[in-house]
Amino acid sequence: MKMKVKLGDIAILINGDRGKNYPSQADIVLDGDVPFVNAGHLNGRNINFSEMNYISKEKYAQLNSGKFREGDILYCLRGSLGKKAVVNSSIQGAIASSLVIIRPDSMRVDVDYLMFALDSPSIQEQLIKANNGSSQPNLSAASVRGYEVDLPDKKIQEDIVDKLSKVRAIIDARQQELQKLDDLIKARFVEMFGEPRINPFGFEKMMLKDTCKVITGNTPSRAVEDYYGNYVEWIKTDNIVSGILNPTKASESLSEKGMRVGRIVDANAILMACIAGSVTSIGRVCVTNRTVAFNQQINAVVPEKYNVLFLYTLFQISKDYLVEDINMSLKGILSKSRLEEKEFIVPPMELQNDFANFVEQVDKSKVVIQKALDETQLLFDSLMQKYFG
């Protein structure tokens, strides 16, 4: 039997200690005794310990609240709303003030079922309504406590978890296959050309402005309705997806009139995200396979002395170099002028073409796997809708 219940009826919500004992910056170290977890350490499923903050056992003992244990769910209340992780080990730790601990009643709800439920369309709709932030997205523990959750019998919960976990495992496997193919391309690149900044083979190096044409996108005036229509896709940074060669389908398009005031490139240009909310998003690239317009957060690079597939991989290999002097505390921008002045190797075109042929062959395999991944994702999404609404 299935019924709707308040999250607060099947789980205890525990805020972090926000009093005088809350760890100061001086209390937080990169190597210590007790993990001090913030939103950046949550990966949607588990806690990422690779760049963890720590506090001492003495500071942990002083905290009056916010101490997690195995089986708890850590849930983000500020910034990345709803970002979460389950504590799947017996390690002791504490949470930053941006998080809340959700401690499920194990007699009534399976923790893995609740993790899936928190990703459901129904909960996402409730999250949007509960967001009371203005400049920064913000939830209260009270609003999360009021989430309505579908709660079938425990045995049915376990069956749902079993089905969803199996489908998600297939999705994970497909994503790992794609990652391995990307790694294969990068390994082949290094084999043929070496690490670009070290340039062990002594290839010529040139500024990008001397090998390519760089174009910054724009946004035609929203005040002119005639600029928007269905004549040419208008690409934004979310259409540039890591690991996918071509831009995804744009949600908006320009009219023929809008195209004349917009910025356009044809097929075989590279679109690069140059303004983004995090440095990890800056430098993402894709190769156009059609004529598109693009906004001001994107720089287009039109190769003149490069094979486009070689340059696409070169940019991916050179991500750290592209973003090394970007200051996110100001406003993370890789400007056209800064990009144009970056120096890159320019191997003989024959070598570039040989490498591009290899990329094309690998990409054929990636297309097949991506299609299977998309189909499995659709199945997962339909099951989520069926079980959680």
Explain how this protein is built.
This protein is α+β, with helices and mostly antiparallel strands and 389 residues long. It folds into 2 domains: 3-152, DNA methylase specificity domains (Adenine-n6-DNA-methyltransferase TaqI, Chain A, domain 2, Alpha-Beta Complex); 204-346, DNA methylase specificity domains (Adenine-n6-DNA-methyltransferase TaqI, Chain A, domain 2). It has helices spanning 7-10, 57-62, 111-118, 121-130, 141-145, 154-193, 256-261, 308-317, 319-323, 336-340, 349-388, and strands at 3-6, 11-15, 34-37, 53-55, 67-68, 73-76, 84-86, 93-95, 99-104, 148-151, 205-207, 212-216, 228-235, 252-254, 264-265, 270-273, 285-287, 292-294, 298-303, 343-345. The strands form 6 sheets. Strands 2-9-6-7 form a 4-stranded antiparallel sheet. Helix 6 (154-193) runs antiparallel to helix 11. The two termini are 16 Å apart.
Q: What portion of residues belong to β-strands?
A: 15-25%
Total DSSP helices? 11
Q: Give the strand tally.
A: 20
Overall pLDDT score: 92
Tally of domains? 2
Distance between the termini: 16 Å
The second-level CATH architecture of the largest domain is Alpha-Beta Complex
Structural class computed from helices and strand pairing: alpha+beta
CATH superfamily of the largest domain: DNA methylase specificity domains
* Overall 3D form: globular
Q: Look at the structure and give the CATH class of the largest domain.
A: Alpha Beta
Topology-level CATH name of the largest domain: Adenine-n6-DNA-methyltransferase TaqI, Chain A, domain 2
Percent helix among the residues? 25-40%
Main sheet strand line-up: 2-9-6-7
Tell me about the biggest sheet? 4 strands, antiparallel
Radius of gyration: 24 Å
